[in-house]
Amino acid sequence: MEEKIEKLNSYDWKVRDLFIEDKIETLNKMFQNHGGYFYVAQKKALRDTLLSIIKGKRSLVYTNIRAEYEDLVKKLELETIIKLEKGSVADAKKELFDVDVGILEPDAIAAESGSIVLFDFDGTKSFVAFLPEIFIAVAEESAIFDTVPEALGNLIKKYSKMPATIQIVNGPSRTGDIENKIVRPSHGPKDAYLFLVK
Amino acid sequence: MSYKQVHKKILKALKKEDLRKGSEAATKDELKKRKYAIATHKYSLDWAEDVKNAKSTMLFDVVSSVEKFRKAFEGKNKYFYFARTPQDLKNIIAEIIKPGSTVVKSKSMVGEEIELRQFMESHGIKIYETDLGEFLIQLANEKPAHMVTPAVNMSEERARQLLEPVVGEKLNDVTSMVLGVRKFMRKIFFSADFGMVGANALSADTGSVIFITNEGNGALTSTLPDKLIVITSVEKIYPTLLDAIKAVTTQAIFSGFEYTTYVHIINGPYDFYGPKEIHLILLDNGRIRNDDLKETLLCIKCGACQFACPVFQVVDGAWGYIYTAAIGIPWTAITNSKETARSLAAFCLECGKCREVCPMKIDIPELIRKIKAEEV
Fold it and tell me: What was the ipTM of the complex prediction?
């Protein structure tokens, strides 16, 4: 009995948000805190916001997005749109050297730390998340977990094997190496957007 | 280094007023950031304790920890090497990387510890440090002042002088310097033969390599070149992936980062884009057979003790050789020279600030006392 009480006492009730609305609120706060932009969007509004982000941009690369978003992305008026999947682009490196926008659907989101979690088996997700100037993640509510460890536990169970890499992304790249002055971007994206689609 | 040499180095630093002022401002700022980061994470202190316990179990028998990790790590196109000495590690590198190759490298204290960059350059390898602070240190041909922020004492003006000739453009402010380096480095990232990274943690259950960066330089280093080399040391092994994640998070928090932008967990080569083979070299360099200063191995290299040290606050990198101030002194004794460590230890004020801020609660003053008293 004593042991049980101790367990209850040691459980941190404050950390866990009980309702999805609270989780989204935490996620919003944390992702903006990282210097990223967070939107909760209806499917129609997603298109309009994407259009305003890609205005004036030339090229886009995407991977791992469901058919309905793929249709939307394909219809965006850009000079180059590349779908990155195993075997799709012979020399992806050359094509992606100065690509403007990258879009993917993340495997999970951790609300408490505002993290985008990617399970990457073939390198495509890492390329899309790291190389473009603007990185956009489009997620559904079902991808939200409380913490990174919880998200990882669930994904390992889902895939029943480890991917080549797991990438955890907290906002756009930055450096403070010269006199502690924060500058974005450094080597990765300048802007990071996280869309939660209803 | 003899006592006289250390004394001379410290006196020289004391005479530089701009360094003293810069250092004081930077350290104050860092400690404030750290306090804020710890308060933001409700579980930061609990996790620090978990990490200490997890690390202790692995350090109890380092040899079997290494063996456990090796078994979990090895696989198709994944090669494991154990380097007992710095020379062993350099020989392995010379086997893997042929002269004339280009290497992009992320920051690694193990690399600094054995002066790997200098070795690779002398071996005819073109090597680029991709972390901005470390790139500045490479250009200045200096040693890092701090474990996490190597160029903490460098002024904007000095950075400009170093970067302009390399980037080939006029760089008016910090933003243009960062963007100039991004442009310059991107071409190199895309054409490099090898990527080289250090590890913040290794997990013995999944055989994963975990490392963190803010700049995204580690992301490109570990994704773009066809071959990836990981250089790290034996005390980084944790029992599980969860322990390792807690360890890198704790390291970031106590370094003063609320969150790092990227956490990379590498399990294997990609089967399409990205690296096709991974070579991991695990360095001992005096760590395993070092019973008297074993507590040092609990260190997660967050650098909090360096910022808290009143001597570091005035002279920063001048008090040390590669590993500077506070925990840097026992690290010097283990990995470099006991004589140098003793010369450095003489300047410790024994105020105990380092022990207060250490997330692993290492009794650093006691370790330094042992070195001073010639007990080790």
Answer: 0.94
**Domain limits, chain B:** 3-40+291-372, 61-283
C-alpha to C-alpha distance for A47 and A75, rounded to whole angstroms: 10
Q: State the Cα–Cα distance between residues B225 and B211, nearest whole angstrom.
A: 17
For B162, how many CA atoms within 13 A lie in the half-sphere containing its CB? 22
What is the per-residue pLDDT across A1-35, written as a single tens digit (0 to 9) for each? 444 444 444 444 445 666 899 999 999 999 999 99
Q: Is B369 exposed, middle or buried (0-12, 13-18, 19+ CB in 10 A)?
A: middle
**With a cut of 50, which residues of chain A have pLDDT below it?**
1-14
CA distances to A140, B138, B308 from B9, in Å? 58, 20, 21
Q: What is the dihedral of CA B183, B184, B190, B196, to 10 degrees?
A: -120
Who among B175, B220, B242 is closest to A183 (CB)?
B175
Q: What is the CA radius of gyration of chain B?
A: 20
Please name the residue of chain B whose CA is at the shortest distance from the CA of residue A150. Answer: B242
- Single out the residue of B211, B218, B166 nearest to residue B195, CA to CA: B218
Identify whether the C-beta of residue A99 lies closer than 8 Å to the C-beta of residue A132: yes
Measure A104 CA to nearest chain B CA, in Å: 16
Q: Are B367 and B329 in contact (CB under 8 A)?
A: yes
User: The dihedral of CA B263, B267, B270, B276: what is its sign?
Assistant: positive
Q: Where are the beta strands (DSSP E) in chain A?
A: 37-41, 59-63, 80-83, 101-104, 108-110, 115-120, 134-140, 144-145, 165-169, 191-197
CATH architecture assignment, domain B61-283 = 3-Layer(aba) Sandwich (3.40)
CATH assignment of A18-197, given 3.20.20.150, 3.40.50.10420, 3.40.50.1000, 3.90.1150.10?
A: 3.40.50.10420
pLDDT digits (tens, 9 = 90+) for B111-120: 999 999 999 9
| Least CB–CB distance from A127: residue in B186, B262, B273 | B273
Nearest Cα of chain B lies from the Cα of A100 at a distance, in angstroms, of 14
Instruction: Verify whether the Cβ–Cβ distance A163 to B267 is below 8 Å.
Output: yes
- For residue B330, whether the previous peptide bond is cis, meaning omega lies within 30 degrees of 0, is no
